[in-house]
Amino acid sequence: MFLYKRKAYYHETDKMGVVHHSSYVKWMEETRAEFVDSVGLSSRKLDEEGLLCPVAGLTVDYKKPVEFMDEVEIRLYITEYDGTLLSLRYDFFNRGTLCTQATSKHFYIKNGWLASLKKEAPELDAILKRLAVEDRAIAQGPANQKTDREGDS
Q1: DSSP result, the chain
Q2: Alpha-carbon distance 68 to 17, whole Å?
């Protein structure tokens, strides 16, 4: 599990002061980028090398609102990784309460073609395989379980 924290800012809210639903998708992207950087790999470097990770699908299930200036804790889990497909789960917590759950699926591509990370980025492949095993074990436990893999915000 990777932990990312951020505050909800005014520009992310709607007329009622509640975080707009589209902001969660942006927060998912922020969390993914911070996660990749946290394991010692640069999202920018991967991009410059032509290794892209587009979103193939996502779901968001809103349970409770987040409001202006609330601090949100986002927990990212790797739920599936096979070398080309990466599936992630995001649990959003506000004041210790689960407020949103989301998932995203990604494929790695290079030059417009499906790419194998084992060949194109073996270091990232090894890291994702190891973390996927760890995250599956964590995901079996309670939703509020903590780990030492945390990102700075």
Answers
A1: -EEEEEEPPGGGB-TTSBBPHHHHHHHHHHHHHHHHHHTT--HHHHHHTTEE--EEEEEEEE-S--BTT-EEEEEEEEEEESSSEEEEEEEEEETTEEEEEEEEEEE-EETTEE--HHHH-HHHHHHHHHHHHHHHHHHTS-TT---S-B---
A2: 6
Asked whether the whole model's pTM tops 0.85, one would answer yes
Task: For residue range 43-54, list pLDDT tens digits in order.
Answer: 888 889 999 999
∠116-118-121 over CA atoms, to 5°? 90
Q: In what order do the strands lie in the sheet with 97-107?
A: 2-7, 71-81, 85-94, 97-107, 55-62
